[in-house]
Write a structure and sequence with these properties.
This protein has helices at residues 9-25, 36-46, 48-51, 58-67, 77-101; strands spanning 33-35, 74-76. It is mainly α.
């Protein structure tokens, strides 16, 4: 019998992203999309460090519109991943830049 290995860190991260999406998507009864209202809640709860110093309340509305590629007024999982990917890229670039400044 093959040994069952525990999930890798990457697999756990993917599972976590799916769970966060479904937690916010499921609030409106549609577990495949996040409404604009739930997107705002998601941003404030899950990414509060990015939103707490935001002085322009229209920034999150603008972000939602940019992410909503099909203009459905809701974020599908792929659109949600575009947000997460963009944030990860920005954080990675910031890390690289700060590492090169320390040399």
């Amino acid at each position: 019998m093959a040994k069952v290995s525990s999930p890798t860190e990457t697999e756990r991260c993917i599972k976590s992203l799916i769970a966060v999406f479904q937690k916010h998507a499921g609030r409106d009864g549609n577990n495949s999309k996040v409404s604009k209202a739930k997107f705002l809640i998601f941003m404030n709860r899950e990414l509060g460090a990015l939103t707490k110093n935001q002085k322009d309340p229209g920034v999150l509305d603008c972000m939602m519109k940019r992410l909503d590629r099909n203009s459905g007024g809701q974020l599908e999982f792929q659109e949600f991943l575009n947000l997460i990917g963009g944030l990860a890229i920005a954080r990675h670039e910031s890390f690289i830049k700060s590492a090169s400044c320390q040399k």
